[in-house]
Amino acid sequence: MIIRRAYLFDPAWLYLRTTAVTMATVLGAYGWALFVEHEAGLRVDSVVQAVVVASALGRVQRAFDRTDRLVACAVLPCAAAGGTELSTLIQRHPTAGDAVFVVGMAGAIWIRRFGTRATRAGTLVVLPLVAVLVVPPGIAPTGGGHEPTGWAAVTALVAVVWGTALTWTAQRTRFVPTPPPAWVVRPAPAPARKGLPAATRMALQMAAALTAAFVVGRTVWPDHWAWVVLTAFLVCSGALSRGDVLVKGAWRTVGAAAGTLVAGAVSGSFGPRSDTAVVVIFAVLAVATWLRELSYAFWAACVTAVLSLLYDWFGQSPGDLLDTRLAGIAVGAVIGLAASWLVLPIRTAAVARARTAAALAGLGELLEADWHDERAVRRARTRFAHRVDQLAVSTAPLRMLAALPLPRRLSARWHPDDTALRATAALRRCAAPADALAAAVTSASDGLADTPDLAGRRSEVAAHALAVRRAIGRRPQPPATPQQPPEPRTPRPPDPAAQAALDALTALNTRLDTLTHLYPPPPTPTPTH
Asked: Considering the chain, what percentage of its residues have pLDDT values greater than 70?
């Protein structure tokens, strides 16, 4: 049944193909790390760090363009070197190392406020920090100079270059799709608002969660504190809002517990330093990468199983630590959820409102674009589609929570607001008329741009979209200006392209009526004399 569901979620095997590219990146980095370990006399923790960094890099680099790849060549080696030094610092001076870890994680999230490229650079910084938590205690070296630091930087650079070559080849041969260009993913301009930006709030939430996780982990499980910290990080990382962290945190916790139980059941089957265990680890890692898009539960279960098998490879039986790991996972999940809900929380409805406004801004760009410029029309249509997809991502937790089979008494008391879900559905229904409008404009741009009837209808729909955006932002509508009656014109036979554009505009206006009902405009201020 799982295989059938996997086929349904990936009918064109797109995610499986991207998984193949990711695992090729991982295996290449693994081979290089083994070579360096043997030739330079390093310890096996360098190999573990290379695999952790390459597995995450293979996933995030799918969205990289040429500039992002150049940034990765500079950022990731420095971050890998810093991660190696941090691992030594944590073992020698735990308090100072824990503080540096918290500051590094929070800083990598905080820089997201500076745009898409800064977000991706911050993600690269996080990868070696996660590797610090993965290596079992007592494995990483505490001395021996700074030679491992230099080799960590070189290995990270090799992983970037190797992964870039594989990804570029796969995209050029259309084995995997190319990422959207920067002009598509660029955030829509938004009015300045009071309060801390979302990135700053998320950074403070992560800092609070990691600080509490370190304190609890060091106090309760001094030899296995990393499980608490790692779970708290996984619950908080990438969460857009309270609803998002609740759903993802639940899936990650359930999956991690399941993965721990499965790994505990097969503990001791391979033995320390077993080559078979290494093969199984890579196989499970590939399944985790593939099924990540299906559910976070599968991803968390597989990754936790990989970590348990890694501990078994080092001679630490997962079965002997089963209770400790389950308790650490549960405590870390509670800490992560509490930090996201209590420390400057980000409301799911607020995120949905902002992304609804961004999608409407994309629709406004399509309506207000220069219809003589076919490229500008296509770009505006692509930006609108991307922002609708981003809105659907932000409202996914609401759909899942609304589908929960709650008891009758609880469901009678708890009525979740479905405004965001209905707005998402309305904007998704705008996709077909937006495509039809763009197709009509690009097929006869010279004629449609100067058609008086079409220009008037276009201005009307654009004003409607702007009015809904102002209502979403709780901004009053500007005073109405008197309209001049249209000049009488001699009717002309409708052009097929013009008629298709008029029909598309009418359909868009109907969808906007739904949004107007969901977001009624605030009272118009009374003009003063």
From this structure: 86
